Amino acid sequence: MVNLSSIIQRSGAALPALLLYLPMPGVVSAQSGCQLNSPQGQISHVIYIQFRGVHLTRDNPNVPSDLEQMPNLRNFILSNGALLTNHHSVLTANEATDVLTSLTGLYPSDHGNPISDSFRYFNPNGTTNPADSFTYWTSHLFDPSTSIPTDTSFNVLTAAGNNTPAPWVPYTRAGCNVGAVATDNLVLEASADIPLVFGANSPEAAEFKANPNLASADFMGIAIHCASGQSLCSAADNGKADILPDEPGVAYSNFMALYGNKYVAPQISPSGPMTDLNGNVVQDSQGNVGFPGADGMTAAVSLSYVAAMQEHGVPITYAEIADAHDNHSTFLAFGPGQAGYVAALKAYDNAFGKFFTRMTRDGINQTNTLFVFTADQSDHFVGGAPSPANCDGVTVPCTYSQIGEININLTGLLATEQGVTTPFTVHSDSAPAIYITGNPARDNQTVTRPFEQALGKLTFTNLITGATGVALTQYLADPVGLNLLHMVTGDPARTPTLVMFADPNAFVFSAAPNCKSPCEIVEPAFAWNHGDISPDINATWLGLVGPGVGALGTDAQTWSDHSDIRPTMMQLLGLQDDYSHAGRALIEDLAASALPAAENTGIFVPLAQIYKQINAPLGQLGLAGACISTLALESSSSNDTTYTTLENQLISFTQQRDTLASQISALLEGAAFQGQAIDPQQATQLIAKAQSLLGQRQRLIASRLARSLGSSFRRAAWVRTSGWHVEALLGACRGVSGLRGV
To answer: Closest Cα partner for 612 from 647, 566, 657?
Structure first.
């Protein structure tokens, strides 16, 4: 980035000219016609911030967590609203999956991206090709390897195969402009997005062909979706039609949008180039002024765009902020408490301090603004012990002699350990999606089932700790298990043969079918794994501040996940989506003034809580399903009866769940958005049915595990799960990973 002072020195500009480039706090161009309908009519702005991998809890007990090292943000939430610390990701726990769920309130089955940040799809001949999750909302599947993919479905799609309803629509229909700052799928992200929006023969498309880096800085990463008739996005100012072909309800027509810094910056920074909160011109690593790439979206950059938009007629803003634990200059990972990591968090904290000060001067604060803060997921750190042992990072920096995920060649490991040479492709991850060539049926006895059984037997050496014989597989899920976890989409070609949730220290890929080159190596460029089923990955956080939010400080009790963010926001804003959410409004964290009369807390809350446990991928039923699926796929009983029995039970669980979830969701949505009171008797009956369903999965796992480990297991591990201690259950499940003939 370039500092403005150097620009002035080179240009010979007088000092007062500097003022032309600086934001003018306190001068806000309010948008006319924006009609939010919050319960008390107090909310006139929305500021939504999503971090990549910023952690609530400590990765080293001596080192303050990411959020603890950002007191300007943490104290703002705790002093003015609610910090939900029992909040969760979905599966797989990767950026695109979690962000899309947060934006829509839908699970991956209804936004099309359970495998991310890229995925593969089957061709008709049984081979696979790659696809990228990061595209514009209305883009079709983007395959970077070919211009003629065999799959032309929407990237973001519903279970019915339509384009998922866009998150900005309720706002723009209410007359409000919506800004997007590096927010996945709300902005242009892939090369195919440019001709889609601007036209194949447009100057913008020609620029991309001639200079892709410049075109990325000019057109990607930043957007404003305008309300109908707003001059901000006029054609004269390079606005383009905001086309949403599958939007439910009234046709979405006569809406315009601005795409890219080249066209957005003149509207929100009319006196000069966009600068970050420290006065540096925003540019990429090649010196192109504009979007610096996702890794360049630090807090100082993203928050500067948010502030400028809010000050120039864009009262609704969504923004993402890059992680702090990777060194994006050297491409090496930091460990907890390492000097670069601590410095990055300090810079983020300073940026939030400047941002809140600037917004307060603008009159945009907790009295009239809904603030939402969250992180896509947390991460599992892969590294050795720090030095010195008692370092805290802040006063005594930590250093690491061993750091980096353990990269594992799955193809080589299967061939050398189990003699399996079945051809397959992989979406590389700590939770790798596996696509067996030919796309065989899930119960194929000559290909699929032997492959799954072999996966369950794989072991590796933890090159960080030196431990040998470590089970690589933690959990396995084929399409039956994936369906229970909301990971089967409206595009059958995307459904993998199975997903392996591996040891979180491992990053699994496919290479040569041997280990002549080591099948296990440490990769120091990456040390923060996610995607997996693991508490340190799946547990994240949510911060809510603004009118209608209860001043609760920390809420460690309310179980929530990313699907609950959207309905909670819509209720607070008095807006409605044109679809039913997978999540529910978090009324436990709202003030009484924000609750409609139909939301009787004594009925709504217990119904909503049991709903989450049967419907959320990481709720009780979902986690138990992962355990049952693993036992099924690893089993090798006579005639495969164990596999068949357990798979059929999972199918039954999913059918029962879907029926119950649909009934409960209708009541919750009706109370939150339609003023429909919940019948207490009906709620009681549904709660009883949900508890019965959870009891069925308890008894099934208990009988299967007890059969393998004996009555001592029942008395020890299983009894501890009777109080819904699901981690004990999963620990027991992991303890029998690799058992045969269950």
So the answer is: 657
3-state secondary structure 63-127: CCCCCCCCHHHHHHHHHHEEEEEEEECCCCECHHHHHHHHHHCCCHHHCCCCCCCEEEEECCCCC
Cβ-based neighbour number of residue 444 at 10 Å? 15
- DSSP track, 661-725: HHHHHHHHHHHHHS--PPPHHHHHHHHHHHHHHHHHHHHHHHHHHHHHH-HHHIIIIIHHGGGS-
What token pair was written down for 144?
A: 């970077």
* CB contact at 8 A, 372 and 565: yes
pLDDT at 27: 55
> Residue holding tokens 């084929």?
478
| CA nearest neighbour of 107 among 533, 544, 579 | 579
Query: How many other C-beta atoms lie within 10 A of the C-beta of residue 6?
Result: 11
Rounded to 5°, angle at Cα 91 from 90 and 96: 80
> What is the pLDDT at residue 733?
58
Q: Which residue has the tokens 């039923």?
A: 621
> pLDDT value at position 308?
98
Nearest to 155 by CA among 128, 192, 127, 123: 192
Q: Which residues on neighbouring strands pair with residue 338, listed in sequence order?
A: 398
Structure tokens at 647: 């798979």
Task: In whole angstroms, give the CA distance from residue 160 to residue 174.
Answer: 27
Report how far residue 213's alpha carbon sits from residue 284's, in angstroms, rounded to the nearest whole number.
8
Residue with tokens 């300007």: 72
The pLDDT assigned to 706 comes to 58
Give the SS3 label for residue 673.
helix
What is the structure's pLDDT at 3?
A: 39
Q: For residue 719, what are the contacts with CB-CB under 8 A and spacing of at least 6? A: none
Task: List the one residue out of 128, 187, 192 whose CA is nearest residue 320.
Answer: 187
| Dist CA 308 CA 27 (whole Å) | 11
Rounded Cα–Cα distance for residues 294 and 482 (Å)? 30
Q: Is 293 exposed, middle or buried (0-12, 13-18, 19+ CB in 10 A)?
A: middle
Domains of the chain: 32-113+156-381 (3.40.720), 405-535 (3.30.1360), 605-742 (no CATH)
Q: Are strands 326-327 and 332-333 parallel, antiparallel or unpaired?
A: antiparallel
Q: Which residue has the tokens 């669980």?
A: 653
pTM here is 0.94
The low-confidence residues of the chain, meaning pLDDT below 50, are 1-26, 709-728, 735-742
d(CA 519, CA 513): 10
Q: How far apart, in whole angstroms, are the C-alpha atoms of residue 178 and residue 316?
A: 5
Helical (H) or strand (E) element with 452: helix 448-455
Q: What is the largest CA-CA distance in the chain?
A: 86
Nearest to 503 by CA among 527, 472, 524, 479: 472
Helix axes 680-709, 601-615, angle to 10 degrees: 30
Amino acid 5: pLDDT: 34
Residues 198, 200: Cα–Cα separation, whole Å: 7
Of the candidates 340, 379, 338, 397, which has an alpha carbon nearest to the alpha carbon of residue 526?
379
* Residues facing 528 on adjacent strands: 381
Q: How far is C-alpha 646 from the chain's CA centre? A: 30
494, 113 contact by CB (below 8 A): no
If you ran DSSP here, which 8-state letter would residue 714 be given?
Answer: I
* Cα–Cα separations (whole angstroms), residue 125 to 17, 141, 150, 423, 545: 64, 18, 10, 14, 52
CA-wise closest residue to 352 among 300, 429, 309: 300
Write out the DSSP string of 201-225: TSHHHHHHHH-HHHHHHHHSSEEEE
- How much is the pLDDT for 10? 31
